[in-house]
Amino acid sequence: MVSPFDVLDVDEDADEAAIERAYRDRVKEAHPDQGGTVEEFQLVRRAYRELDDRDRNGEADDGTDPADIDLSDDEGEADAVQPVRVEFLDYAAIDDYGWSLDDDDLFRKASHADLDESAHGRLLVHPDESLLEAAENRGFAWPFSCRGGACANCAVYLVEGELSQPTDHIMPEELAERGFRLSCNGYPLSDDLKIVFNVKQLAELDDLILPPGPFTRR
Ligand code: FES
Questions:
Q1: Where in this chain does the record put each J domain (predicted)?
Q2: Distance (Å) from CA 109 to ligand 1 centroid
């Protein structure tokens, strides 16, 4: 029997803040780029979701006590986690239209601008895909270079939701706090995401960009 509390290593009476902290720590350890596996990573996500979905009485939707949920029962854990919906926007469109990255109406404006479907649209990220892999698997050509956390060519800007970041990444703390993430090894941590891709042309990311090479796209 492995309950969501066991997976996150928190007490059954842990409050929301403690669960959130435990989740952040566990998800880093379980990240595939940190020696974890996709299955372990998704198990941590599932445990957090079970605890996050509790109502005011601490019960799951169906009235179950989360302490009685056995996550070791699930066959094919990765399949048990639903794909994450991502709405994306190309920074080039923001630049062309003179919009701002911080505009609260950014995605509404994008949906009225009749942009090409490669510049603005939605895609699903499956449990075993990084954000960049998901984009590529759906036929999009987003920028990248090293694919290993050592540059910002694949950087995206988070407008809504959360994307994981391995601990040995190049992104300075200040930019990470502002919402910049790497798509090549970023796995969604929330059910929905809104991101701006192709932000590598921003001046603040200049020093982190690798010059064009055989493995660089765009
Ligand atoms: S492509 Fe270099 S960190 Fe993602």
A1: 3-56
A2: 29
